[in-house]
Every structure is written in C-alpha cells, then in structure tokens.
C-alpha cells in the first residue's frame, strides 16, 4: 500500500470523527445550549449542507493549485472550523463552526479519491478508494466513541478541541507522505461541468443521496433512540457507536473488494438489504440485543455502498473526474441533511424516536429503484452500440473481392 494512502486515511479519520461524533453528543449539546434534540439535529443538517456547497466550490478553487497543496489547505480549514465549534458561546456560532468545518469535507474526499485512484493500478482503484475511506470508518470505531466518552465525561467542547488537533496532524501527514502532485492538466471548468450531462453520473449521485440518506435517518438520532426506546444508559451509547463503527469498517472493506468485481450486483444487494434492515429496526429497537445487531447491520450495509458508488461516478465521469467525485461526496451529505431533517420532522410530529427508521427504509428502497433503472439504461445503450457495429462493418465487407 502506498504510504500516501495512509496520509489520506489520517485526514479521513479526523473528518469522520467530527462528522459523526455530534450524534453521540446531541443530548449534551442540546442541554448546554437550551435547545430541543430535533433543533440540535440542525448541527448535522447544517454540516451536511455545508459539504454540499463546499464540495464543488473548494474543488473548483483547487484546480488552480496542485492537489497536494489543496489537500493541505483543506486540512487547515478543517482545524479552524473545529476550534470555532469548541469555543462557540451560542448555538448559532456552534452551527457556523460546523459549516466552516464542513467546507473542507467534500473537496478533501473528492480530491483524495482521485489521488488515491491514481496511485494504484486500474484494477485496484476501488480498493484504493476504500483504503482512504477506511480512515472514515476507523473513526467510527475509535474516534467517535472516544470523542463521545470524553464529551459525556468532561464536556463536548474538549472533544471538538481534540478533533481540531487531529486536523493539524492530518495536515502534517499529507505534507510528509503525499507525493508532490502538479495542477491537473486540462482541468477546465467547462470539461468538469460537462460530466454532469451524462445521465449515469446523475443517477449514481441520486443513488448516493437516497442510499446514504437511509443510513443517516437512523443514526442521526441513535443516542435518543437507544436510550429512550431500547433502554440503554447514556454511557452505553459509546459502545453502541463502536459497534456501528465496526459495521461501517467491515462494510467499507467488503464494498471495496467486490466493487472491482461486480459493481452493480453489489449495489443491488447492499441497497436492498439496507432497506430491509432499516424497516426491521423500527421493531428491533425495542430489544437491547436485537437493536445492537440491527445497528451493526445498518452500518455494514450502508458503508458497503460507498466504494461502488464513488467508483461508479469516477467510471462514468471519465476525463473529468475531480468535480464529479467531489460533488458525489456532497451527494452523500445531501442525503445526510435530507435524512436528519426528515427524521427531525417525524420525531417532532410525535411518531417517536423509531420513526426515522421508516424514513430511512423508504429512502434506501428508492435508491435501489434508481440502481435498477441505471443498469437497464446501460444495457439498452450497450445493445444499441452492438447493433450498430455489424451494420457499419457490413458495407465495406460487401465490396471485398471473393477468393476461392
């Protein structure tokens, strides 16, 4: 494994920690600022929307400089945003800190995915992307539970200060380990934007929004669901987040391995399984053991979609992958924002803390429909191309002299 992939994984670890740790600390942050839990959920929605806006914006700015330089700048922005969150005296300023942090997220993963794919042989691209995203999933096993524990024991502000320090470590890791990468040749705005005319790129991003939205509908409100419905203590949330992280880690590895072999079948399996698991979660959330098992499954099935979806976009946007890759990271977070918002709506409407699971199941099922549609369009396009080849070849063949 190239050491540069390790550097990217370190950056991903810091970003993964700050993105997901809010979910474990939502009740504490809500109490501290005197807001409701659905209102505190805007810290998830705001962060996710910041990624959606920041991903293309920062990536386009990044076409002016080398990719390594841009990755270092993004880690700097990330550190500053987390420090602002840690010091925020009011909830609106906390939200601003989250949005500043989020601006680095999409472009880091978008540019990082392209860099990771370029560091290895063509048949190992999805595996290299998965290696970078391993930092994100390990964050859910180590960073998020540790941050949640520190936040509950000492105070959530210390958690965000620690994440800001992680950003500095990530910056130096990239400076040391990622090879110098010049500004990509031919990185023109018109060419990058043209990739979005491909309906397959748009469909892949639609799958990303809906599929990952399904995961976040459940996990955004995991702390109140597990404490109020399943009957776990506040302290147990840390270990439940470890379990979720283990599921995400395993799912990401499996997704990376099989996306290089059978990409679309992998998406059918994971999206279908995710829809079923989320629907069942509504019922299993009332039992401690079943709730924990379902949480593991949701994490695994959700993150098994990440490498194939990212590779699908890179494959379809060939020739101009950087912006499409970053926008797809924004699409993951658009799904997060949509799901956190919808989950807050059904909770506020009085349907209870398990209601977001139904929202998630419907979103994942819709993503599966898009995957089937995408494959059907691809088959139709291939069939037309094959039908055109013999016709084109027949005319010159008819003029050839016949020899006996």
Automatic annotation (TrEMBL):
Q: Which residues form the Major facilitator superfamily (MFS) profile domain?
A: 4-382
Do you know which InterPro entries this protein is assigned to? Answer: MFS (IPR011701), MFS_dom (IPR020846), MFS_Efflux_Transporters (IPR050189), MFS_trans_sf (IPR036259)
Tell me which Gene3D superfamilies the record gives: MFS general substrate transporter like domains (1.20.1250.20)
Parts forming coiled coils:
none
Q: Where are the transmembrane segments?
A: 38-58, 70-91, 103-121, 128-150, 156-178, 199-224, 236-254, 266-283, 289-309, 330-352, 358-377
Q: Which domain of life is it from?
A: Bacteria
The principal location of this protein is membrane
PANTHER family recorded: CHLORAMPHENICOL EFFLUX PUMP RV0191 (PTHR43124:SF3), PURINE EFFLUX PUMP PBUE (PTHR43124)
From the Swiss-Prot or TrEMBL record, give the protein name. MFS transporter
Instruction: Write down the species.
Output: Yinghuangia aomiensis
